[in-house]
Design goal:
This protein is of the alpha+beta class. About 15% of the residues lie in helices and about 35% in strands. It has one domain.
Length: about 325
């Protein structure tokens, strides 16, 4: 049980031979693509705040309540201070598939053939398959990178613009995962006292993207050989079971959802930066002022004062979408 070299049929020399490093890398890439198509661990977004990933909070200042007097402007010491508005977002739902099961008995010929240490041809075991292809593919997937080499995984971006080429991505939802807001200081005027308390402006929205291959890379790779029911070598079939396509998708899906080898894949939202942070961090920003005291004279019996939000933008919390390997 170890890393081995699958066999393939070289049509140029008409020989059965071991795959090169490059050919094995192609198989790993194919496994990554099959993780993408497996739907093993998926994220979705809506605006109903009923997701099962952690709630994260957007905070902003709002004005204090207006004060009035019939004799003079209310003193600043007596006016209400700006307060904090908190809006919670819990829009992301993680779904873990239960349909993948690759650990059934295979009769010893399910996986690719290789030359053992005695020079004889035998089929890889399930552990050989893990060591040679499945776990190395996940070692590439588990990364802070957001390229097609992490196909099937999700990341956050501050726009809905899709990635292209090696950074190709698809937009999971037009609904934002989170929108950072701040008090719109320009909306508060002395002439408007008493102003509405909460007058926010949107600063930055964060959207969920998924890295994705545009097409199946199988056409550019060499398929390995397997031992068939008659104990002959054959290239993996394109129909029936198991095709190499089905084999890899099931194995990648099972590993991500229920591996006992430390390769299960899950997502979390929170302030921790452990494991693999995916894409943009979500910044909750807020003005840091203590209040902009303003007055308004309406008439001899109506003196008004109010404290508006002020200050400079400060990051209160930064949240991360993290890929968890367990």
């Amino acid at each position: 049980m170890a890393v081995v070299r699958p066999l393939y049929y070289n049509t140029t020399s008409n020989n059965v031979q071991e795959m090169s490093d490059s050919q094995i890398d192609d198989l790993k890439t194919f496994c990554i693509f099959k993780y993408q198509t497996s739907g093993a661990v998926t994220l979705s977004v809506d605006s109903s705040n009923t997701g099962n990933l952690s709630s994260i909070s957007d905070t902003r200042l709002q004005a204090g309540a207006a004060s009035t007097s019939v004799t003079a402007f209310p003193n600043e010491a007596t006016t209400a201070e700006p307060s904090t508005v908190t809006v919670n977002y819990q829009r992301v739902t993680q779904t873990v598939s239960s349909v993948h099961n690759t650990l059934t008995a295979d009769g010893g010929t399910r996986y690719p053939a290789y030359y053992n240490s005695s020079g004889n041809i035998q089929a890889m075991s399930a552990q050989d398959m893990k060591d040679t292809l499945i776990h190395p593919a996940f070692d590439i997937i588990f990364s802070t990178n957001t390229t097609v080499q992490q196909a099937g995984t999700y990341f956050l971006k501050t726009s809905t613009t899709l990635g292209t080429n090696n950074d190709r991505s698809v937009l999971t939802s037009a609904n934002a995962v989170f929108t950072d807001t701040r008090a719109n200081t320009a909306a508060y005027t002395a002439g408007g006292i008493g102003e509405a308390l909460d007058q926010p402006t949107n600063i930055t929205s964060y959207y969920l993207h998924q890295n994705s291959y545009a097409s199946n890379p199988v056409s550019s790779m060499q398929l390995p050989l397997k031992i068939d029911d008659n104990n002959n070598l054959q290239e993996y079939p394109t129909t029936g079971f198991p095709t190499f396509d089905q084999l890899c998708e099931n194995f990648m899906g099972h590993t991500a959802t229920s591996s006992a080898d430390g390769y299960t894949l899950r997502y979390e939202l929170g302030t921790s930066t452990s494991n693999y942070s995916k894409g943009s961090g979500i910044a909750d920003t807020r003005l840091n002022g203590t209040g902009n005291y303003q007055t308004r004279f309406v008439n001899a019996d109506d003196y008004r004062a109010q404290e508006f939000p002020n200050g400079t933008p400060t990051t209160v919390n930064t949240y991360y979408l993290r890929l968890i390997k367990a």
